[in-house]
Specification:
Blueprint: H1 2-20, E1 25-27, E2 34-36, H2 44-136, H3 142-146, H4 149-161, H5 176-181, H6 186-190, E3 193-196, E4 199-202, H7 224-244, H8 249-267, H9 270-279, H10 282-305, H11 319-322, H12 326-336, E5 339-340, H13 348-363
Antiparallel strand pairs: 1-2, 3-4, 3-5
Keywords: Signal
Length: about 375
């Protein structure tokens, strides 16, 4: 009887709860969360089951998070390992490239060294051939003698073999009798034209701190006042330098201002521009411009040192001392970087006679000159 009484009680409770509008807890089989029915009443079972399901979901989420963290650590370790591998590869490639670059650089340096040796050796071959032509076939060297290149070649060869820095009669390797045969008189010197940069002067002319050879356009009357101002300022600088051993700032500034005025007048002259354009004399204009630039560079050196004497080379050129004979003339030219300019019309004989004397001097020392003996570079290739 009690077996039928219990279901009846439950049914009665259910009916009574429905009649009161209470909610009933039903478990969703899909999401496993307890759900209250709108018609059911509150039941303690609902609270207990919700807590149980929440704890189960927490445990499940913690386990899933542990698995995800473990997988993340594995992925991070794998990425770090691959990054180390990439760093190793990068370092290996870097040092391989560096080694290869150093090897290529050494090979290039070796090639350049061989090229320099070949160039110097080719110069020796060329010097040897030129000297052979001058020595054995001087009749073929007429144009080279007239334009001064043959004399400059002999000057370079003598400078490399026998010319001292400054001629001294007591320590000279040439005897008094030989020097007498090499003497140069005033007429001979007047036929020789020397040059140092843009400056050309006769070998019989005394060269001091003055400017004795202005370019053609700068000799026009239009520039006479500015040109005179530059010459006077430059002469004052030279005199002050010779007297005191240095030049004052005021003198240098006056010289610079005078040169700037001349340069401005030269570049801004409409007459010069029209004359150059009409007669196609651009070389004259550029020669004057280079001359002014050389004067400006001289002032720049003067500003650095305050002394103009080093730029004149042993206090200028004195034909009575430096042009007494061929050896003293060549010593002065070698010491000051002076070369032979092209011969003027009518002075070719003087150039030819001087060439014969210089060739005779070099014949005595040609065997000692290493610039005429090329080397065998077959072992360097």
């Amino acid at each position: 009887m009690w077996k039928t009484a219990i279901p009846a009680c439950l049914l009665g409770l259910l009916i009574s709860s429905i009649s009161r509008g209470q909610e009933v807890v039903v478990v969703d089989p899909v999401y496993r969360y307890p759900t209250r029915l709108q018609w059911s009443a509150y039941d303690p079972v609902y609270a207990v089951t919700s807590r149980i399901y929440a704890q189960a979901d927490l445990i499940r989420a913690q386990s899933d998070a542990a698995v995800d963290f473990a997988e993340a650590r594995n992925l991070h370790a794998s990425a770090y390992s691959k990054e180390l591998d990439n760093w190793k590869k990068e370092l290996r490639i870097y040092w391989e490239r560096k080694t290869l670059a150093e090897k290529k650089k050494m090979e290039l340096d070796h090639i350049r060294q061989i090229a320099r040796l070949k160039y110097l050796n080719d110069q020796k071959w060329q010097n040897s051939r030129v000297w052979d032509r001058f020595k054995n076939h001087p009749e073929l060297s007429g144009p080279n003698i007239r334009n001064g290149s043959a004399l400059n070649f002999m000057l370079a060869r003598l400078a490399a073999s026998s010319l001292p820095y400054q001629f001294d009669h007591e320590s000279s390797r040439f005897s008094t009798e030989a020097l007498e045969q090499l003497e140069l008189d005033h007429e001979w010197l007047s036929q020789l034209t020397l040059k140092q940069g843009p400056l050309k002067f006769s070998a019989s002319q005394t060269v001091d701190g003055t400017i004795s050879s202005w370019p053609y356009i700068l000799r026009w009357e239009d520039f006479r006042d500015s040109r005179t101002a530059v010459e006077q300022a430059r002469a004052a600088v030279v005199q002050e330098s010779e007297a005191n051993g240095e030049t004052s700032v005021e003198s240098i500034q006056r010289l610079e201002a005078a040169l700037m005025q001349l340069t401005k007048q030269y570049h801004g002259s409409a007459k010069v521009a029209q004359w150059v354009k009409q007669r196609n004399r651009y070389t004259h204009f550029y020669a004057g411009d280079r001359f002014l630039q050389d004067l400006d560079r001289e002032i720049l050196q003067l500003e650095k040192t305050g002394d103009i004497r080093p730029f004149r080379g042993q206090s200028g050129y004195d034909p009575k001392v430096d042009g007494k004979h061929v050896v003293s003339l060549l010593c002065f030219m070698n010491r000051n970087g002076v070369e032979f300019a092209a011969a003027k019309p009518g002075s070719e004989f003087a150039y030819h006679n001087l060439f014969v004397l210089m060739r005779g001097l070099y014949l005595t020392v040609a065997e000692e000159d290493e610039s005429l003996t090329p080397n065998d570079l077959s072992n360097h290739s």
